[in-house]
TrEMBL record:
Creatinase N-terminal domain: residues covered: 6-135
GO CC, alphabetical: cytoplasm
Coiled-coil region list: none
Protein family: Belongs to the peptidase M24B family.
Pfam families with a match to the protein in the record: Creatinase_N (PF01321), Creatinase_N_2 (PF16189), Peptidase_M24 (PF00557), Peptidase_M24_C (PF16188)
Protein name: Aminopeptidase P family protein
Amino acid sequence: MTHAPRLAALRAELARSGLDGFVVPLTDEHMSEYVGAYAQRLGWLTGFGGSAGTAVVLADAAAIFTDGRYTLQVREQVSADDWSYIPVPQESVTGWLAAHIGEGQRIGYDPWLHTDPWVKATAAALADRGASLIPVVANPIDAVWHDRPAPSPAPLTVHHDTHAGEGSAAKRAHIADWLAGQKADAVVLTALDSIAWALNIRGADVAHTPVALAYAIVQADGTTDLFVAPDKLDDAVRQHLGNAVRLHDRAAFADALQGYAGKRVAADPERAVAAIFDSLATGGAKVLPLRDPVVLAKALKNPAEVAGHRAASLRDGAALSRFLRWVEAEAPRGGVTELSAAAQLLAFRQETGCLLDTSFDTISATGAHGASPHYHVTEESNAPLRLGELFLIDSGGQYVDGTTDVTRVVPVGAPTAEMRDRFTRVLKGHIAIATAIFPDGTSGAQIDGFARRPLWEAGLDFGHGTGHGIGSYLSVHEGPQRIAAPNYPGGASLEPLRAGMMLSNEPGYYKAGEYGIRIENLLLTVPVTIPGGDPDRTMLGFETLTFAPIERDLIDPALLTPAERSWLNAYHARVAATIGPVLDGDDRAWLISKCSAIG
């Protein structure tokens, strides 16, 4: 079945349901960034394979909304005969709907796939046009998606305290203290990584993210009701959870929300869907729209999590270094493709004996494909690595002690002067973030421009954020912290950066039709002591956690300041000292050569 008939089938189903249109987000009932196969409704309907987007289907028009990361990809995967391409944040789903509907029209939405603020704002915008936003009981895509996969049956596993750094009982006690401070009786946890972190459990229901489909309600005394499919539980998990965690079928969650009449119940308006707010309110609860208390606690990594990440970074960096040597040797000879390169990197990671999964679909992109920041190679798009091209590899691993994410660029043959100029400017921005020192309370939005200045000075920029948070054997993208400006995907992060937060550092440059450049390491936010500084002012900086060589042949030393050159040489010395001892023979010799100082 091609995608045009799927669009026609959905329109027929909407007509049968008395709806004039329908909104299709790329998410699940937990507002997850990455979702299980059963929830890939947008991809099934349109063919779009990115990780962020929304579609709107009307009787006489259809539009797909994506941000700057997917400008090229959406045009390659989604037919222009059926769909209009709408850029966000320049335009919004709500604004587009208001401009394209008529009086009396009924636009459907699934209340389990949208936040309460979105529903309220969109309903108001449609009402101004005399139209209505209508919640559906059953998603109409599910009625026409006849071979839709079932949710994953994968079992839960225990994430032991040695890696978590704190027991589940202590974490639930902290949540209880937070509830007391809010004068609340309970909090609904819907984000899958929040539940995994709070209960020290992991799962395999979402590709590359070790979480399980579940809901949790933490009570004021710290006891918890966990809603999860019973066949996911074995004796080890039940024993780990203990009597203070009451177990229920996931299917019982919606009804359970009706049982809080007269109670004050917290729910996160960014992470809990509209259906949860509606069910609590209709059941008589007083709903407190507060941020999930796990979000910040999870972002502040404890010593065990930091130590685990260091260990994961060591083995991951060694595997990546072996791969970079392999690419340098093999790609110029011909025969290496984007898919074969990704497979080789996976093999090197698997040889560590510790890899549990990749942390996302590897971005293995050569030449023009590299200009699409979130390019996903397929059998159809698979391209050979050719002389004169840049090869970009963005990848990561899931290990029980840490989650990694790293990007490097390799020239196949001799790079052009322009490539070296652009790469060096990206490197200068990378160094500016790595060496930033700022007062406690500074947000990622305030330092984002550090990464862009070297590009701005040449009239250039990149169309994505500079950094995201990362989990501890959890999501590769984790909030609330990020480094981004207001006009980039996801918006600015006004969240204060705090000691213990991990972030990526990944400025880039993309020339459509030719190449892409990105340099990514992971950072740990740490306190910094400045001699002579104000003793009453806490200052923060970053410690780089990722170790792998940055391609010397792409660097124009003349563009580097003495301080930048010093940072690069010191970084490479640390790479050699850290990774070198775990490599053997030719791999080690190659690494030492790659990490030699630039004069």
